[in-house]
Design goal:
439 residues, alpha/beta, D-Maltodextrin-Binding Protein, domain 2, six-stranded mixed beta sheet, four-stranded mixed beta sheet, 43% helix, disordered N terminus
Amino acid sequence: MIIALVLMLVLAACGGGKSGNSGDNGSGNASAPSGQNSGNAGGNESGGDADASVEPQIEEGAQLLVWDNADAELEWAQYVAEEFTKRYGVPVTVENVNHTDAPGKLQTDGPAGLGADVFLAPHDHTGNMAAAGLILENFYGEAIMNEHIEAAIAGGSYDGKLYGYPIAVETYGLFYNKDLTDKVPETWEELFELAKAFNDPANQKYGFMYEVGNFYYDFAFIGGYGGYVFGNGNTDPHDLGLNSEAAVKAAQFVKRIHDEILPIKKEDITYDIKDSLFKEGKILFQINGPWAAEGYRDAGVNFGVAPLPKLDNGERPTSFSGIKSYYVNAYTKYPEAASLFAKFAASREMQLKRFEITGQVPTHKSLTEDPAIKGDPVVSGILEQAQYAIPMPNIPEMQTVWGPMASAFSLIWNENIDPKQALDDATKQIEDAIQLMQQ
């Protein structure tokens, strides 16, 4: 009888402990204590096997700070914060920190305990942040991987682990003024012809404009001619393809754009200048992304978006695609609450709201067939270009590429420097910088 009683007590204790633990991660392991990351749902090698239906054990007294972009994106972030607070009772403050500035700001603010608990960042910073120990692994890896497009998962992953909570995907395409042309060029030769007929530089009218010297856009031509940044699918920093035959051919093509249809200095092609001229009806075609659409609509511009025209090799330029993701600060006092907020923001409901407010392209698989999204001319044009896009490399060494390559294309454009020489010099600078990083 005594033995039977002991067994009953043991079984009752075991059963009660599991069913009553709100922090059960779905794999039979209890959640880590507040502030820990050793036993949470994201603590496995593949990025976590959490059951999406099981909520974490939110830390007592949790309150969150979130960094996001300005304007419409900030409006969306505040909406998410309000909805999250309604549902979970956790106060959330949203501050404007540009997503491209957030990773650098976190390097100092994170260890000092001043950084946001959750922040928006471009996916190409993932490797650098993960290697520096600034971000936590995704607590809900399996659920996020099942729900979002592959490019979004790849962008937010590093060294086989998922860190990001995807929020939006973006690339760029050919924007054109429908009041100025009824023809969308299928090839660059067609675009050159249309641009020359429209050009009137003396009156600041240009048939085509793009931000030369911004490698984010310059790379499209390199990729279109078969070039690459890093070898082995942009994971091998010791194999640079930036001064290859394909890259030189791309640089020569960019120089042709300058010589034939855009004969102005690189300094006169800032984003703001290009944006203003397009709104004034003084640009026929330009390269831009979905982030510009709201401003053009507000300005009353009758515009369309198409994929980038085919090059003389019959291939489309391979635009860089970027993933905006939320990341959780590794120094947060509230890892469970912060991770839950990031997951909540990446949900279908919140991504659809983001599309409604910002017009940005969602990453949630279930939204790709949503009529509202498929019927949007801007998003549909960007999605068409996206099939030719290449995710920006997200290994830490990518940060050494932007500056030297921007300088190379600027010198080719402004100073008529030999493309091969300019690219050789840039490649040498990048190789030296990578060597210093790895010492």
